[in-house]
Design brief:
With 233 residues, the chain is an alpha/beta fold. It has a single domain, classed as Spore Coat Polysaccharide Biosynthesis Protein SpsA, Chain A. The chain contains eight helices and nine strands. The chain starts with 5 loop residues before the first strand and ends in a 10-residue tail after the last helix.
Length: 233
């Protein structure tokens, strides 16, 4: 009997400095993934050349700029795995991510979605005193965000596509829908993701308070039976 297959979706835009390392961390998994889909969301830098260097190891999908949510949805649409995972183009998977999360799927009661823990690290180009946010690399945090997720395709389809609301709130909205659903969610104790801190992190380019407030309004609207406000799919 064949086991589950894993599709990894990496949205990217103008991240030629980081995306190769992100892809390499996926290709180096102790339990290999079955396909890596990189959605180039309208890059205008050297990102296309960097991606081309991976040859047949990845599948490249190009589109005009549409935002992370749209890029992730596009990647899922063209993928074929029975399990779906995501990685931001500036972050890194730990080598054992898929191995420990697949093991979690095999334990009773079997989950429908598995998250893991994450640690932050300062990108090498940041000199002393230039870390964008407080950094404590010795303190793993529960990573309830896209880069730590491994989810059954059937569960992802039932929850629905990631909202294309922009500003970094896309996945948080999807996560809220998952938590409000009857699907079983677990978080493994292992660190599965390293989140890169650098001067162009999305969180520094958008007001985080405004972003989270917008997502919370959508969550409250949905729980009250109203159509969420803001840009929808």
């Amino acid at each position: 009997m064949n086991g589950p297959t894993i599709s990894v979706v990496i949205p990217t835009k103008n991240r030629s400095a980081y995306v190769a390392e992100a892809i390499a961390s996926v290709l180096a998994q102790t339990h290999p993934v079955d396909e890596v889909i990189v959605v180039d969301d309208g890059s205008t830098d050297d990102t296309p050349a960097v991606l081309a260097g991976f040859g047949d190891a990845i599948r490249i999908v190009r589109q005009e700029w549409s935002g992370d949510g749209a890029a992730r949805n596009r990647g899922v649409t063209v993928s074929s795995g029975t399990l779906i995972a995501f990685l931001d183009d500036d972050d890194l998977w730990e080598p054992h991510k898929t191995e420990v999360q697949l093991a979690a799927f095999g334990r009773a009661p079997q989950p429908d979605a598995v998250f893991g823990h994450a640690i932050q690290f300062a990108s090498p180009e940041l000199g002393p005193g230039r870390v964008p946010v407080p950094l404590d690399a010795d303190e793993p945090i529960p990573g309830h965000f896209a880069g730590t997720l491994l989810v059954r395709r059937s569960t992802f389809d039932a929850i629905g596509p990631i909202a294309e609301i922009g500003g970094g709130g896309d996945f948080f909205d999807w996560y809220a829908r998952l938590i409000d659903s009857p699907f079983r969610v677990t978080t493994v104790p292992e660190v599965v993701l390293r989140r890169r801190l650098h001067l162009s992190n999305l969180g520094r380019q958008n007001d985080p308070a405004q972003r989270y407030a917008r997502v919370l309004r959508r969550v409250v609207d949905r729980r009250r039976g109203r159509v969420p406000t803001g840009t929808d799919l």
